[in-house]
Amino acid sequence: MKLIKLSQLVIPIFFLTGFVSCKTKQVDENNKQTQEQKVATKPNIIFILADDLGYGDVGFNGQDKIKTPNIDKLATNGMVFTNHYTGSTVCGPSRAVLMTGKHTGHATVRGNPRWTASGTPVDISAEDVTVAEELKRAGYTTGMIGKWGLAENLNEGLPFKQGFDYFYGFNQHSPAHHYYPKTIFENENELIIEGNDPQTKEGQHIHYLMTEKATNFIDENHKKPFFLYLAYTIPHFELTILEEEKEQYKNLGWPKRQMTPGHYRHDEDGHTTYAAMVSTMDRDIGNLMKQLKDLGIADNTLVIFTSDNGHEYDDLKNEFFNSNGDFQGHKRDLYEGGIHAPFVAYWPNKIKAGTKTEHISAFWDFLPTACELAGVKPSDTVDGISYLPTLLGNDDSQKKHNYLYWEFNENQGPIQAVRKDHWKGIKFKEKPIEIYDLSKDISEQNNLAEQRPDKAKELLFLINNSRTEHSEFPLVKKILKRQ
């Protein structure tokens, strides 16, 4: 409770000093009112993150089996990014990159909890500056609902210590693997969900509770600028949803994919369950968009929808949903299927409806984008570049990345990758670099390293010079049993 009270004392100070237009420290009452009016004009920001949703799992990217009408409507009325990348190919580091604006060569968290050198999980640190912290000093109320996954040690990585005024969800990874958890965190309190049993899947499905909390957060905070980070756990394993949600996918003649319960308490038929999970999320996103309209704040709210990494469900040897589209690989790969994400931005009367951009962007761009929207500059060094000019149609003023960088180290690692313009380089430890011309070979089937040694040398140089050392995430071979 002392921490909460202290933060409440600090908020007004940030509130008064967070604007670049403030020219004096001695603010009179009139200037204070003017500042408060400026805060009121700042756009709300809602960032919706799906979990393990593939690039091809949404209709606007070609999905023809799973129904996603509401997400597709965002695309129809907003802007689709065709070259947007995640922070990593698994959830923990990807979310850390999103929150801090630093790619995995510089981020504090570069792998999932079990994949550290010491075996002790690494969390986001007190020194990290998150999007929430940046927006709080610009006068925003901040909320995080869903899978945080950056506080395995339940210490300094906790959301309320990282700039969030409100939190409801999972601090750690393993509890987030189940949709009927026995407990859930609300702010710093761990609450029992009466009647829930993750093994028998009895009680309340957590997705619906997350949606309820998101609805409440918007209702309670819509009269002043807010930032909502809504990190759904759908459609991450385990595959389970209410039977009524599956009805639309039954009796369609689909082949049955038998799922075997283990750590993940899957429902029996994978295909109908996976599709129903995605469509359930889609419907609830549609309801949230209606809520914004009903509250009269839709025109002052930027909504972003994307996924934390590539899909895991669809069988690459026997694809049914074509979840990765034309890409090679999926979750845990640094080929396009593991990191190339669906991305749509919706902001009525600000973003031109029905537009697409080929601007190359990544998760580490969100923090500087949010800062520019809020009228503040990042207070820490970041790797990201604001894509706000692209959102507003000002392509001529859009800065571009020289290149993007990723690293990943689980069973098949270490792996590093870069994208520079239309060229992609991938380096497996102890193996020669692979390079691909994505403008002609988006599926990464034709390795041009031998034909283009000059380009291979250039990309290899970037791979070798894009990271700082991290004692817990060295680029050495690791072997652990995959969960």
UniProtKB/TrEMBL annotation:
Q: Which segment of the chain is annotated as a signal peptide? A: none
| InterPro entries assigned to the protein according to its UniProt record, in alphabetical order | Alkaline_phosphatase_core_sf, Sulfatase, Sulfatase_N
Q: Where is the Sulfatase N-terminal domain?
A: 43-376
UniProt-listed SUPFAM superfamilies: Alkaline phosphatase-like
Instruction: Specify the superkingdom.
Output: Bacteria
Keyword terms, alphabetized: Hydrolase
Pfam families for this protein: Sulfatase
PROSITE patterns documented for this protein = PROKAR_LIPOPROTEIN (PS51257)
**Keyword Signal among record annotations:** no
The Swiss-Prot or TrEMBL record describes its family as follows:
Belongs to the sulfatase family.
Identify the PANTHER family for this entry. ARYLSULFATASE FAMILY MEMBER (PTHR42693), ENDO-4-O-SULFATASE (PTHR42693:SF53)
Name the UniProt record assigns to this protein? Arylsulfatase
Q: Which organism encodes this protein?
A: Litoribaculum gwangyangense
